């Protein structure tokens, strides 16, 4: 395309042709009709590869408190944007690469290696990059770990996700709810001697962080069955803090909260647990198939895995998960403090000792103000603060990628809102 | 970041700061030291969001003959790149959007609507955007369409994928291979009266295009059972030509050949077939769950669905699937002609009447030259021409996004290579 016909300069932003130029733009006029010279220069032009309407990186970003898919680190997005059309001189997008080609293999191998460094994953654990979300794992776990439908498994249910995991397991084994927080509206985690485990349970399942209710395990129970294992759904606090992987048989997580886009599910599984899937297990739910094929049995979600890799790289650059946890603790503290110091104007129902560093649910003493709160926050570009439809109120999800400044702005808004409605 | 410090103009390309500018660039000097004026103007600057090393759309792209993930339309990639950091002024990337928010809902609804237009999908069919690839569907189909493990189903096996579908079905129903091309190395499609169907089969399954062997159905068999349905895996020729959807009970396809990146599986299913999943079916493999929730039961692969939507939009803009088919026929013809007119120097084993418009496998009469052919083609930026490890030789996958010029360049190279080795 002829550069001179499709390009121009406005202010200090690269403009794409079909973008409607502001007629009053000084620099636009400045460049097409320079007032300071009699000899008309060649029109200055920029060729932009894109022929679509956009202004790269110019529009203000919102402060995104979504529970997932959620905010991603800006530098990761910008890196992905810069590489999207042509990944590191390969001549193609990551989305166009054969999953068996050397380019993508380098991407998935680095992603696994960086994740192993982040979580100090022992060598007797496999890392799998799968599809289908945690919901698919709800079936994969009993199908791979229970030899028959009569095998017992224990579930601690601290919220909606633990409950969903239990219900799906009923199809494939003999699961028991050994503790449920439902009667207390999922605001607690039990003391580990506060529930009775089945000494024959193949595994003890927990949801390490309940996204909807904002309840997070700060420590982990030990299976009563010496041959049993602890399994954790870490979808919403994965890579938000260091974890002793050796305490678990399986850790699984959907990527779309802390480490990437939706469409990637990460499974960290102790190798001796692999290879025992029941015959009825769909091949895509058999850990052995994916382990033997290094997650490449069929075409994996390549671009999503690439994005996770960029995030892992960024987390390591930040100083690893100890530093990430410090940042998350600081963000959560100023938000919970603002709630607790509001004299009851804002309220968080969750027991203090198990409040999530990731998902902060809160309500207003005067519930009739909640709609106004959410609407006014949105005006200040703070979005996705509405609580889950099943619990109402508000919820601020403040995952790894939420900057401290975003939480500070929310807290300032809360205080100002309270002052106006005191 | 201060625009003046991180931005400049080189030639007619938008440069990102850390890219090393060509010191001789005229227009760069032109802008910083305009020769045509005595009064020094403010330095013209472009702010680019990215702080990484790249030149958007400048590096040469390869001609990508990969079988999938495969080439995507350049304008689609550029559109995605331009929107990646901030989708249409929403203040967030598509990867950061809540899948239940109005922004993503508009994306998935337009994608479905455009796909319905492209394929003229009747209103009594549902369109589902799922995960797990065609391989997951190999299990979903018998689990949803067969009431018991004894229910019969017929499979026509014209290549590796049809065979994989049959093998997975053995776990969940009583499938029969009613015809197999294995003994003839998968180079044929049977005449439809050339095999015996089970009159009680719940469905007749075909793989409409075998990616590895380059065998494509040009017409479709009718199930002998009046209550049975035809099911087609269209992963590698989906949206490459018009299809009469009403002839099928289910059409399914991984997106990563013709319509998007890997990680999205599209299922088009007649509504009366939904709601009959066996109790043992994992919830994520139950069509009813996804249909009732408009593919939003759990978090879908949002960015992949967005990319598919951009491709559907592009296919409509090209004039729809009739026009797309014309282009694909023209591309395939010049490549097959080059093979057939090479006097046996190049050979395609597939029976002419069923040669794929998408995947063109070929060998060299002198097999010892194949390595050299592939290496020299790569030097001319034609990549991924190696045949599948299971069949050897070469394979050129020329999906919708492969431009005619790419095939013309390959054909010119083939003739030049033959001349040198005659």
In the sheet with the most strands of chain A, the strands line up as 4-12-11-10-7-5-6
The gyration radius over C-alpha positions of chain A equals 25 Å
* Principal-axes shape call of chain A: globular
Distance between the termini of chain A: 61 Å
Organism (chains A, B): Raphanus sativus
Cofactor (chains A, B): pyridoxal 5'-phosphate
Domain Aminotransferase class V (chains A, B): 63-410
Pathway (chains A, B): Amino-acid biosynthesis; L-serine biosynthesis; L-serine from 3-phospho-D-glycerate: step 2/3
Structure, explained:
Two copies of one chain form a homodimer. Chain A has 422 residues and is an alpha/beta fold. The first copy, chain A, is built from eleven helices and 16 strands. Chain A has a seven-stranded mixed sheet. A three-stranded antiparallel sheet of chain A has the order 13-14-16, with helices on one face. In chain A, strand 5, helix 6 and strand 6 (174-180) form a beta-alpha-beta unit. In chain A, helix 3 (74-83) crosses helix 8 (302-317), helix 4 crosses helix 8 (302-317) and helix 5 (133-145) packs across helix 6. The radius of gyration of chain A is 25 Å and the shape is globular. Chains A and B meet through helix 2, helix 3, helix 5 and helix 8 of A and strand 2, helix 2, helix 3, helix 5 and helix 8 of B.
């Amino acid at each position: 395309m002829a550069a001179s016909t499709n390009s121009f300069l406005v202010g200090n932003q690269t403009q794409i042709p079909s973008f409607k130029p502001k007629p009053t733009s000084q620099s636009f006029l400045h460049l097409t009709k320079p007032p300071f010279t009699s000899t008309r220069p060649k029109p200055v032009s920029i060729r932009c590869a894109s022929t679509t309407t956009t202004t790269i990186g110019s529009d203000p970003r919102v402060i995104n408190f979504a529970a997932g898919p959620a905010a991603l680190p800006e530098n990761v997005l910008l890196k992905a944007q810069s590489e999207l059309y042509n990944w590191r001189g390969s001549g193609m997008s990551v989305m166009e690469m054969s999953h068996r080609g050397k380019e993508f293999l380098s991407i998935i191998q680095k992603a696994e290696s960086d994740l192993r460094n982040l979580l100090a994953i022992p060598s007797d654990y496999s890392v799998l990059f799968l599809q289908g979300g945690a919901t698919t794992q709800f079936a994969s776990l009993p199908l791979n770990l229970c030899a028959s439908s009569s095998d017992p498994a224990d579930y601690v249910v601290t919220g909606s996700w633990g409950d969903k995991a239990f219900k799906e397991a009923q199809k494939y084994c003999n699961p028991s709810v050994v503790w449920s927080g439902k009667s207390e509206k999922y605001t607690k985690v039990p003391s580990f001697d506060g529930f009775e485990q089945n000494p024959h349970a193949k595994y003890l399942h927990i949801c390490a962080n309940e996204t909807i209710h904002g309840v997070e395990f700060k420590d982990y129970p030990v299976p009563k069955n010496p041959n049993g294992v602890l399994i954790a759904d870490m979808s919403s606090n994965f890579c938000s803090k260091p974890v002793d992987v050796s305490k678990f048989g399986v850790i699984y997580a959907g990527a779309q909260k802390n480490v990437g886009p939706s469409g990637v599910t990460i499974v960290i599984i102790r190798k001796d647990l692999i290879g025992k899937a029941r015959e009825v297990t769909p091949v895509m739910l058999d850990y052995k198939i994916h382990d033997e094929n290094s997650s490449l049995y069929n075409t994996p979600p390549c671009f999503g895995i690439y994005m996770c890799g960029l995030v892992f790289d960024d987390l390591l650059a930040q100083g690893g998960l100890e530093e990430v946890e410090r940042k998350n603790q600081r963000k959560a503290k100023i938000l919970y403090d603002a709630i607790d110091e509001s004299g009851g104007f804002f309220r968080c129902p969750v027991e203090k000792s198990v409040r999530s560093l990731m998902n902060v649910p809160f309500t207003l003493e005067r519930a009739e103000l909640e709609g106004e709160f959410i609407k006014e926050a949105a005006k200040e570009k703070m979005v996705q603060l509405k609580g889950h439809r099943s619990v109402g109120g508000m919820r601020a999800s403040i995952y790894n990628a939420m900057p401290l400044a975003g939480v500070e702005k929310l807290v300032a808004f809360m205080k100002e809102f309270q002052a106006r409605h005191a």
